[in-house]
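Onboarding guide, step 5: your first structure request.
Type a short instruction followed by the sequence, for example:

Predict the 3D structure of this protein.
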Amino acid sequence: MTERWTKVNEFLQDVFFVTGNRFKLAEVEAVLGKMRHIDLDLPEVQELDSRKVVIAKAQAALQQGYSPVLIEDTSLLLHSMNGLPGPLVKWFLKAIGGEGVYQLGAAKNNCAAEVRTIFGLALGPQTLIYGEGVVQGTVVAPRGRGFGWDSIFRPQGSEKTMGEMTPEEKSSFSMRVLALQDLREQLERFHGSIGR
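The system replies with structure tokens like these:
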């Protein structure tokens, strides 16, 4: 392991990861290592641009005295709906459930979809480092368990929905893991650029 990786690992131990979801926490710590964790009720702006959602949450956490802070937003985008529900998926699921979201795609005879996770690591009010991961797939009638839209999203290359997969299977299709790997690379570059 290079000296820069060691510095990144040490830095990540001091980051506050904001989530109330134990599954997300476990997935993040599996990739980035043990972190400080807080469950804050942050305002969630109603916005179709995930970066704006992440920025607003990060600024709110910073204002409450948490720094550096890691924020995550995950979207489900239906191609036939021009990217809806996107970052609003939580509210769609609350209103119409997984079956209703599936029916939106089925009604247009196009169930192609993608899931996208973006992480924002706020080092301060003006410094955010992003990591993004995208997985293509299809929405299907609900099958399996899991949280959020897991039971209705079948990634390309799988016959199972995310809700039918074991944790090991799911991690091989995880947009969150991809986003965390991207974030780690961006953070390593950032540390490398300030260490010159």
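Each response can be followed by summary notes, for example: The first helix runs from residue 3 to 12.
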